[in-house]
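Below is how a single chain appears once it has passed through the pipeline. First comes the sequence as given, then the structure the pipeline wrote out for it. We keep one example in the README because the format questions we get most often are answered faster by looking than by reading.
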Amino acid sequence: MPEALSPLVDAHTHLDACGASDAASVAEILDRAESVGVGRVVTVADDLEAARFAVDAANWDSRVWAAVAIHPTRANVLDDDVKAEIERLASNPRVVAVGETGLDYYWPGKLDGCATVPEQQDGFRWHIDLAKRLGKPLMIHNREADDDLLSVLKDEGAPETVIFHCFSSGPDTARACIDAGYVLSLSGTVSFKNAHALREAAVLIPDGQLLVETDAPFLTPHPFRGAPNESYCLPYTVRALADIRGDDPDELASHVTANAERVYGLS
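Resulting structure:
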């Protein structure tokens, strides 16, 4: 277990993908996280089943909050019934963001059944509208789609709060997001020694526009890259990020926690 940093909020995790299936297994994951100072998490959905689970988990355990949406690669399932169900779930008071949504240009043509680019863009526009109607933050998934994603946000009019989950682009995109007032959430990838462009971007992010996340069970930080990730690993990422930015780890933990409380409206 890492040395504790307290307090911390895991701004983006997937409790179901980490093996949680009921209140007891959710509590086990949160107990491990809390032992190293990660006292709250936002568990995020990428399909309808995961959205239902996320809302349940957030109501089972007060340390858990939820975000719900249909992942861009699955945007081709967004018929009227699915939209109505996502909107119903997103309206739950334990849901603090609409996400993860956005654009993913890596998988079309590689993954059977993956939504096409036009389907992804239509789904993204619908989620943007939903976030604005509900007055909740929009949580972005972006893979190899920087320019188009920023263009759609501009065309549609971004919600008041936009969070780029697992920000992994370089300094130019970081500057565009920062100038637009978006929040950038960094994961364990920032600890990877070969993530040169991301590490350049990390030093540009103002203290007030920065979050940290695990995206568990994916993207485990150095020195455990390749092993299953979980919220208790977040202090490794915070310490790596503090080293890159020249920050004190405890001060950085305080900044990102205050940001998570403000951005998500956490009590």
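The first strand starts at residue 8 and ends at 13.

See the next section for the split statistics.
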